Amino acid sequence: MSGRSLLVVGAGPGLGGAVARRFARDGYAVGLVGRDAARVAELAAELRAAGSAAESAIVDITDVAAATEAVTGLGQRLGSIDVLHFNPSAFRQQDPLHLTVAGLLEDVALGVGALLTVLQAARPFLASGARVTATGSMAADEPWHEAASLGVQKAGLRNLVRSIDATLAPAGIRAVSVTVRGTLAEQGPFSPGRVAEAIHAAAGRPAEDWRTEVAYDGSGDGTGDGAAVD
After folding, report:
1. Nearest 5 degrees, angle CA 25-CA 180-CA 91?
2. What does the pLDDT look like over 2-31, one tens digit per residue?
3. Residue 87: which residues within 8 A CB-CB, separation 6 or more?
4. In CATH, what number does 5-229 get?
5. H helices present in the chain, as ranges
6. Which residues are CB-neighbours of 111 under 8 A, at least 6 positions away?
7. What's the rounded Cα separation, in Å, for the pair 109 and 67?
8. What percent of the chain has pLDDT over 90?
9. In what order do the strands lie in the sheet with 29-34?
């Protein structure tokens, strides 16, 4: 394939799908990584019907070997990865008195650790100008104690994105986490489509004005000076 391409890790009917559709409208070929074969196939078919090139892989991204193979294969089929979007997180409704160490580590492996796997596999396909984006959450700063692992995941994800940006910036590749300061809903300012617009805008921020974290509070696209944070 030629032209720009997007790889969405954690593709499905919600925000992952909305991000895929938003970039596809700009002419991006789209690679989809997900666990639900039926939902990923449906999204890929929708993108193709709208005129976009779409490739997909069904894999458990916590399986390092399988995820590495899947991302490498998609990178080869796409030819390049201009935007890598990381969307997954685990929701486990357990407070600190009930959350086990094993449960916490399992969730962090999905919501944080898997980003290392897909980034390392995608790196040969990321050239100068490429962007890495991640779905952040206000849970990083304001965790709900009844789902304690989610806050740990989102705080860790934001921290890791900062390290990724510092590591890749000399190669002209930048990374950003988009902190969603609200609860995702089917309609309204925190609908998947609106949040996808914020992620798209964050990826398109000029290098000279780059931020490693951008907050989206539902009032705009998340790139205004009042919403962005370093």
Report:
1. 105
2. 589 999 999 988 999 999 999 999 999 999
3. 8, 9, 10, 11, 15, 16, 19, 134, 135
4. 3.40.50.720
5. 15-24, 37-49, 64-78, 101-108, 114-122, 148-168, 192-203
6. 88, 89, 90, 150, 153, 154, 156, 157
7. 13
8. 87
9. 54-58, 29-34, 5-9, 83-86, 131-137, 174-180, 213-216, 228-229
Q: What angle do CA 155, 226, 24 make, to 5 degrees?
A: 70
Alpha carbon distance 112, 201 (integer Å): 23
What is the radius of gyration, based on Cα positions, of the chain?
Answer: 16
Task: Give the per-residue pLDDT at 12.
Answer: 87
Tell me if 129 sits within 8 A of 177, measured CB to CB. no
In sequence order, the β-bridge partners of residue 214 are: 178, 228
**88-127, pLDDT tens digit by residue?**
999 999 999 999 999 999 999 999 999 999 999 999 999 9
pLDDT digits (tens, 9 = 90+) for 171-223: 999 999 999 988 787 888 899 999 999 999 999 999 999 999 999 998 865 44
